[in-house]
Write a structure and sequence with these properties.
The protein is mostly helical. It contains 20 helices and four strands. It is globular, with a radius of gyration of 27 Å.
Length: about 450
């Protein structure tokens, strides 16, 4: 596994320290950086085996002796070990190290030219780790994410009065900036999701949007807006009137009305047939083609049972109710623990009424069919699910989604003329019928183009 860092075998005694270093480095990244550094995120998910990480943390104070010439053979591995053994780890240098590992295990590290470039960047990072007065630390100070890193370096390059680390400037201009930009543009959907606010805010597709006001502020600070009244055109044709009337009620083509019966979206019997076909296909494909090929057939019933969006499936991990991650599938019971997202200005009762009201939870235990939970346990492998591992490893560790649920639905049930969003909308309509649309919005973290 760790031979991917430098495309050469590493000593067995390095495996535990490297696993611990990758695990700690992964914990320093935010959601935006994880969405950009997909090669590193995929490598960290496979490399951070719990036994190796625990052994590496127990050996934290142990210094690894490096023979002469080892830096040339293992530049990335040595840099990881040096970073972990350093007394103080600067966040900006840690992000630059994650970029280094992502390039090493990605396409950039497959060619000799790319490995030479990666080795030069590794040397710069080791120099910044060893030198407490390194100008690179000052240059990158205050960067909280990869986009911040690009902004800060570009600002230094644009100003002739501000000096830049000369060696790093050559690496940045020759390949590093273009590589980071390409990673950011490769998967805009993941990046947009990572940068989305963690609150239930109104959708831009909603026919009504709240407008921020300056109530309570100084009236002199308000902008004056001139209203220009135009006489209506009485001679408008019926076609123009029809288009105007239609334009006032435009919504997304996939948008639903939460008050409509769920069966009008998709028949319940068709969903049962789809789940049965998915379970049968999984049982047949798992012993023949392995876990990666059979995974997509469990993603369909899990998406239906949990009402998750397809893009959220890669975020589901194994664990327990005590874990703080947003989407946790319990190992010991068929329950999905998910966080609740409320509107940013939701009404909260005063403290004097708290004694008379039931406490409002921040997480909800969502039941999953036991038969589906058993099959997901088989998907985890002979050793069973491990805490922190993704429930759908092929989808979580791949930079590009290996399958689309819409295509899987057509493969299992050719008569089904709907995608993965329609069953989720049916679940939302069912919840709205029983508990009201507000509960459906909070549980599914979606406004469904209604007021939040």
């Amino acid at each position: 596994m760790f031979s991917l860092l430098d495309h050469t075998a590493v000593p067995s005694s390095w495996s535990a320290p490297l696993a611990a270093a990758v695990s700690e480095l992964s914990s320093t990244l935010g959601e935006v950086d994880r969405a950009i550094l997909r090669p590193f995120a995929a490598f960290a998910a496979r490399a951070t085996e719990q036994s190796l990480v625990a052994e590496g943390r127990a050996q934290r104070t142990r210094q690894i002796r490096v023979a002469a010439g080892t830096h040339d053979q293992h530049p990335v591995a040595i840099t990881l070990i040096r970073w972990r053994q350093s007394e103080k780890q600067f966040p900006a240098i840690s992000k630059l190290l994650a970029v280094l590992v992502s390039a090493a295990v990605g396409d950039e590290g497959k060619s000799p030219t790319g490995r030479n470039r990666i080795g030069a960047l590794a040397s710069i990072i080791r120099g910044a780790l060893n030198d407490g007065d390194s100008p690179l630390r000052v240059l990158l100070a205050g960067t909280n994410s990869i986009p911040d890193l690009i902004r800060v370096v570009d600002a230094h390059l644009a100003s002739p009065d501000q000096g830049l680390h000369r060696t790093f400037e050559g690496v940045w201009k020759s390949w590093l900036r273009d590589t980071l930009t390409r990673w950011m543009l490769a998967h805009p959907g993941r990046l947009r999701k990572a940068m989305a606010p963690m609150a239930l805010v109104p959708s831009l597709d909603s026919p009504f949007l709240p407008v921020l006001s300056t109530s309570g502020a100084d009236g002199d600070d308000d902008h004056e807006v001139e209203n220009i009244l135009i006489e209506p055109d009485e001679s408008a044709s019926p076609l123009v009137q029809f288009c105007r009337a239609k334009a006032t009620t435009l919504v997304r083509a996939s948008q639903i009305d939460l008050y409509q019966p769920p069966d009008t979206l998709v028949p319940e019997a068709m969903l049962f047939d789809l789940c049965r076909a998915a379970a049968t296909s999984f049982d047949q494909q798992l012993p023949l083609l392995g876990k990666d090929a059979a995974e997509e057939f469990l993603a369909i019933p899990f998406a239906l049972a949990s009402a998750l969006r397809e893009i959220d499936l890669s975020d589901v991990t194994w664990g327990s109710a005590d874990d703080e991650n947003g989407l946790i599938l319990a190992i010991s019971e068929p329950t999905l623990h998910r966080s609740l997202l409320r509107p940013p200005h939701a009404a909260r009762p005063p403290e004097e009424l708290s004694h008379w009201l039931e406490p409002s939870p921040d997480r909800v235990a969502w039941p999953i069919p036991p038969s589906l939970h058993d099959r997901l346990t088989k998907l985890a492998g002979p050793s069973g699910p491990l805490r922190g591992n993704p429930v759908f490893p092929a989808r979580s560790t791949s930079p590009v989604a290996p399958y689309r649920l819409t295509n899987t639905i057509k493969k299992l049930l050719p008569a089904a003329h709907f995608g993965s969003a329609i069953p989720r909308s049916a679940v939302a309509a069912h919840i709205a019928q029983s508990l009201g649309p507000e509960v459906a919005q909070v549980l599914l973290a979606d406004t469904f183009s209604m007021s939040a």
